[in-house]
From TrEMBL:
Keywords: Metal-binding, Oxidoreductase, Zinc. It comes from the Eukaryota. Its cofactor is Zn(2+). It comes from Hevea brasiliensis (Para rubber tree). This is Enoyl reductase (ER) domain-containing protein. Belongs to the zinc-containing alcohol dehydrogenase family. Residues 206-334 form the Alcohol dehydrogenase-like C-terminal domain. Homodimer. It holds the Pfam family ADH_zinc_N. Residues 35-164 form the Alcohol dehydrogenase-like N-terminal domain. Transmembrane segments: none annotated. InterPro entries: ADH-like_C, ADH-like_N, ADH_Zn_CS, GroES-like_sf, NAD(P)-bd_dom_sf.
């Protein structure tokens, strides 16, 4: 047994911003109290990995670092006080914490754990800030989003882990760690898209198309996709898109004008899935007076403030945002897994590519080039 000892294994290390990852031998410490050491079975690449991979060192970025935050794994060993899972169980690490004990975790109204935070500014474990990873020279390797899945073994806090039943294929499960859960959660839970409603989705990556899939399953009558990449429309039809707007071919008209004309005055639900303040404004303008709801899912990394006409709020429009689509990881993600098993949710269509761990840099190229939705990386 490996329990209680450091494990030597392979990891894909990012040594400098924007450089290809390098597969190296590392050492992974045993889990401390309230921690779980996980053998990663497969992982997938999310755009947030790329955002931080590109980022020059600063408060949110430091190297060497192990990226990756969508994955499926098996518990190898657990630290003291961990009773939720035991060796051999299937788990999903999740960047969004769910401690189960704080005021927020106990409330159905919040998914923002007040004991832990989404540790984008931290480089180690959520409880003590230290790393469980070292390279062969003894240099500390930083964690990412409390997950770090681009390694054969990782250690996560029990608050960042969801237990899964063994029925779900591990590659499909991995998608539920972040992007797809974000889109489906936003559509079903945060917005609550209903039958017959009109939906406009800004940005047709995996998150945007998961919003579309969620809206399609809820019976939305019009699902308009907005993207600069014309190839996204054909792709999006599979996910329920009924219409497409390419901002570069709108001519004199703004995107919101075009959408208002298509929807008799504005969409019932608008979703921003890119992370650009100007696009959030345009999404809000595209929403209907009276009840139009705009949902912000994109992570705005430029520090730009959001500009809205307050009078439009007086006229009944609203704006909301959420991490991971407003889902509470430990309770809601297993429900999505069940829906997949019951064939009420299609996850296959999001997997556009698969590579082996040694070819992980290909996954980066594909996502950067707008070629992939989700690339599964097999360990
Ligand atoms: C994001 C959410 C907000 C902080 C950075 C990462 N999550 C996942 O992609
Ligand atoms: Zn993500």
């Amino acid at each position: 047994t490996t329990a209680g000892k450091a494990i030597r294994c392979k990891a894909a290390i990012c040594r400098n911003a924007g450089e290809p990852l390098i597969i190296e031998e590392i050492e992974v410490d045993p889990p401390k109290a309230w921690e779980v050491r996980i053998k990663i079975l497969c992982t997938s690449l999310c755009h947030s990995d790329i955002t931080f991979w590109k980022m020059k060192p600063g408060p949110l970025s430091d190297f060497p670092r192990i990226f990756g935050h969508e994955a499926t794994g098996v518990v190898e060993s657990v630290g003291d006080h961990v009773e939720e899972v035991k060796e051999g169980e299937l788990v999903l690490p999740v960047f969004a914490p769910d401690c189960g004990e704080c005021r927020d975790c106990r409330s159905t109204k919040s998914n923002i754990c007040s004991k832990f935070s989404v540790s984008s500014g931290q480089f180690g474990m959520p409880r003590d800030g230290t790393s469980r990873f070292r390279d062969m020279k003894g240099e500390v390797l930083h964690h990412f989003l409390s997950v770090s899945s681009f390694t054969e073994y990782t250690v996560v806090d029990v608050a960042h882990m969801v237990k899964l039943s063994h029925g779900i294929p591990v590659d499909k499960a991995s998608l539920l760690s972040c992007g797809i859960s974000t889109g489906i959660g936003a559509s079903w839970k945060l917005a609550g898209v209903e039958e017959g409603s009109t939906v406009a989705i800004f940005g047709l990556g995996a998150v945007g198309l998961a919003v579309a899939e969620g809206a399609r399953l809820r019976g939305a009558s019009k699902i308009i996709g907005v993207d600069l990449n014309p190839e996204k429309f054909e792709l999006g039809i599979k996910f329920g898109l009924t219409d497409f707007v390419n901002p570069s071919t709108c001519g004199e008209k703004s995107v919101s004008q075009v959408i208002k004309e298509m929807t008799e005055g504005g969409a019932d639900y608008c979703f921003e899935c890119v992370g650009l303040a100007s696009l959030m404004t345009e999404a809000f303008r595209s929403s209907r007076e009276g009840w139009g709801k705009t949902v912000i899912l994109g992570v705005e990394m430029h520090g730009s403030p959001l500009s809205l006409n307050p009078y439009e709020l007086l006229r009944g429009k609203s704006v909301a945002g959420a991490l991971i689509g407003g889902l509470k990881p430990k309770s809601d993600i297993p429900l999505l897994a069940e829906k997949y098993i019951d064939k009420e949710l299609n996850l296959e269509q999001f997997i556009t590519h698969e590579v082996s761990f040694k070819d992980i840099n290909k996954a980066f190229e594909l996502l950067l080039g707008g070629k992939s939705l989700r690339c599964v990386i097999w360990m």
